[in-house]
Task: structure prediction
Amino acid sequence: MNTKLNFDQQDGNLVYVKPVAVADLPQEVQEKAEGLTQIFAVHNAEGEQLALVADKNLAFELARQHDMSPMTVH
Result:
């Protein structure tokens, strides 16, 4: 995997996708997680949480549908 990226061409719509343990979330969010142990958070460049979704693919699709460029945070 040797994909070259030109970060100078990013349009400022970069978002970060990271896994989050459901147990680390507020109780009201845990109750809505429907038995999941991990979900994914989408954050903007300033660290503001934009969304919580059930899986990584959904997080990437959601970002792209809103003209954002998603990247995984490890």
